[in-house]
Amino acid sequence: VQLQASGGGLVHPGGSLRLSCAPSGRSFSGYSMAWFRQAPGKEREFVAAMLWSDHGSGYADSVKGRFTISRDNTKNSMTLQMNNLKPEDTAVYYCAARGGLFRTNPADYIHWGQGTQVTVSS
């Protein structure tokens, strides 16, 4: 599965961004989808994930209540709605996919998108 991520950019603290991830060549059916992020000098960390088939989802504590992961059936894509963004959310965001249930360890994912930069700054 090849993944294409988009939607990053520069936003002020308190602002919102919406990231999208779409597969090329197939649907997400049977997969779990996730977003990870990596800030300079830090390890890649889990942000959110969902099971494509039943919408079950999970979030990192740092983004609960601010970020929402969902799927767009019409576009066969996954989205991450990010609200009330903070400077500490600044990172390159990656979408990822794996067969079966979602995991929070990036090592458990074999399909990755190219990353999209999110910068939160005044």
Can you characterise this structure?
The chain has 122 residues and is mainly beta. 0% of the residues lie in helices and 51% in strands. The strands form 2 sheets. Strands 2, 4, 5, 6, 9, 10 and 11 form a 7-stranded mixed β-sheet that branches. Strands 1-3-8-7 form a 4-stranded antiparallel β-sheet, with no helix packed on it. Strand 4 (31-38) and strand 5 (45-51) form a beta hairpin. The chain is globular and about 40 Å long. The model has no long low-confidence stretch (mean pLDDT 92).
Main traits of this protein?
single chain; 122 residues; mainly beta; seven-stranded mixed β-sheet; four-stranded antiparallel β-sheet; 11 strands; 0% helix; 51% strand; globular
Layout of secondary structure:
Blueprint: E1 2-6, E2 9-11, E3 17-24, E4 31-38, E5 45-51, E6 57-59, E7 67-72, E8 77-82, E9 91-99, E10 111-112, E11 116-120
Parallel strand pairs: 2-11
Antiparallel strand pairs: 1-3, 3-8, 4-5, 4-9, 5-6, 7-8, 9-10, 9-11
